[in-house]
Amino acid sequence: MSTAELHTLTGAYALHALPEDERVAFERHLGACEACAQEVRELSATAARLGLAVSVTAPPGLRDRVLRDITTVRQEPPPHGRSSRAGAPAGRAGRWSTYALAACVAAAAAFGGVAVWQNQVAQDARQETDRAQQHNEQVARVLTASDATTTAADLGDGARGTVVVSQSVNRAVFLASDMAQPPGGKVYQLWFDDAGTMRSAGLMNPSATDDAVLLDGPVDRASGMGITVEPAGGSDQPTSAPVALMEFGAA
To answer: What is the arithmetic mean of pLDDT over 205-213?
Structure first.
């Protein structure tokens, strides 16, 4: 995917509407594009506010009333005080009326358009709520699995990390407590340890000090997990010393 194409994904990313491969590519792009990062922050805040708004439908008959009124309201003369005069090209008044009609129709349509747009934003917010609920249900499945194993570690400066693994569910959850926020432009990235080969397991929310993260992908044969500090958007392989390495407990 080209950089030009990535610049167009801010809106879809803010609404969590990107497929997994495009989301990963765009998050990497965010680490190098402050303009897109700023736009995502603004769009996310706006979407959150609008998602709580109630759509307002235009009053009944508004469009018909506007179209009726434009046939009786006198058109203002052209600018600079030059009204119709002898020698003026035939059809000018007709063209002005056409422009006024088009503008009024567009204005009337806009009332309905705003309601449709608000409905779409609200629908997107509901879909995001559904995704959050599905995430919480998956986390609960791991935490309550009969074969769940738990490993805890001291992450320094009072922070604690706990990883819960269920082989039957084939997923893992990382629980963070009192973690310091990463440096500006950085993010904590989680990794599965596949016999010494690190496999990306997703990113933590950089603004959350307490978090429950469902690791991306299946556990499979992973024997543990690690945490590193990476550029915003994450890395294909760890680029810094691990903040923590944790072995998965035996069932």
So the answer is: 85
Cβ atoms of residues 69 and 101 within 8 Å: no
Q: What is the DSSP letter of 92?
A: H
For the chain, the structural domain boundaries read 3-51, 149-247
Rounded-to-integer distance, Cα 49 and Cα 46, Å: 5
| Sign of the four-CA dihedral 75, 80, 86, 91 | negative
Give the C-alpha separation, 248 to 148, whole Å.
10
Contact yes or no for 180/160 (Cβ under 8 A)? no
Q: How far is CA 55 from CA 108, 111, 112, 119, 162, in A?
A: 17, 11, 10, 6, 43
Cross-strand bridge partners of residue 166: 171
User: Taking a C-beta distance cutoff of 8 angstroms, is the pair 40, 14 a contact?
Assistant: yes
Which pair of structure tokens corresponds to residue 172?
């893992």
- pLDDT tens for 100-114 read 555 555 555 555 554
Q: How far apart are CA 160 and CA 149, in angstroms?
A: 17
